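User: Design a sequence. Structure:
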């Protein structure tokens, strides 16, 4: 896996006419995980979208090294297709083989994720937790160095939750990076945490315009 890193400097994020956070600095290096925590609507997903390059920063900068894979509430698997077919679509783009294990000691990914028996089931019939696992299978197949995970534990039973933590841990142990927006406590080695509440501007301090920031900042949908 290529060396991965994320460097965030003095980052500010604006949504609509609201400055959500400002002055955010962070560095994540290969092998580490970063949890982004905070109340609903504080800007966790917005931060992940900036890191993914899907939305512009209002001010400051983000530098990433390494390919990026992201999971949010959109699983990006065609609901009309059987799971196996939907995953094969991504496999054709990403390369890799989910039926094969990277390590002699662990079973293939679909089996580990409890999906091996579900490959004939249309994606739209999968349960919430099964869709989450399927999205994780797609992400693993992508072999991206940086994982951006938006609430990856929501809707998972305790077994799937533990497995997700294990897979994130393995990804980091192999030199990857994971940035995880989550309200829930995470059991991961080498985990740092950002509380976005620490970067919310004080009332009346939500205008960076005089710094020349964000004039062109229009968010993608
Ligand atoms: N395209 C947009 N235009 C304007 N405001 C937006 C847009 N998208 C999101 N917002 C607002 O930005 C704020 C932050 O949203 P975001 O989804 O980043 O929060 P979050 O911390 O991930 O929340 P949650 O925990 O509920 O998922 C919210 O108030 C939201 O309504």
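Assistant: Done.
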């Amino acid at each position: 896996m290529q060396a991965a890193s994320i460097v965030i400097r003095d980052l500010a994020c604006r949504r609509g006419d609201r400055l959500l956070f400002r002055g955010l600095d962070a560095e994540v290096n290969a092998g580490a995980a970063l949890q982004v925590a905070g109340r609903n609507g504080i800007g966790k997903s917005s931060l992940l979208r900036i890191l993914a390059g899907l939305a512009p920063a209002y001010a400051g900068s983000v530098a990433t090294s390494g390919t990026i894979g992201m999971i949010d509430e959109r699983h990006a698997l065609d609901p009309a297709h059987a799971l196996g077919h939907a995953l094969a679509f991504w496999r054709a783009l990403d390369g890799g083989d989910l039926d094969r294990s990277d390590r002699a000691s662990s079973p293939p990914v679909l089996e580990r994720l409890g999906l091996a028996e579900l490959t004939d089931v249309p994606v739209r019939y999968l349960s919430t937790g099964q869709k989450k696992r399927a999205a994780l299978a797609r992400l693993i197949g992508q072999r991206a160095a940086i994982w951006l995970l938006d609430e990856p534990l929501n809707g998972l039973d305790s077994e799937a939750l533990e497995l997700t933590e294990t897979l994130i841990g393995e990804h980091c142990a192999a030199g990857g990076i994971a940035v995880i927006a989550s309200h829930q406590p995470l059991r991961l080695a080498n985990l740092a945490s950002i509380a976005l509440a620490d970067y919310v501007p004080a009332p009346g301090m939500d205008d960076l315009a005089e710094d020349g920031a964000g004039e062109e900042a229009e968010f993608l949908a």
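The CA atoms of residues 17 and 132 lie 32 Å apart. The radius of gyration is 18 Å.
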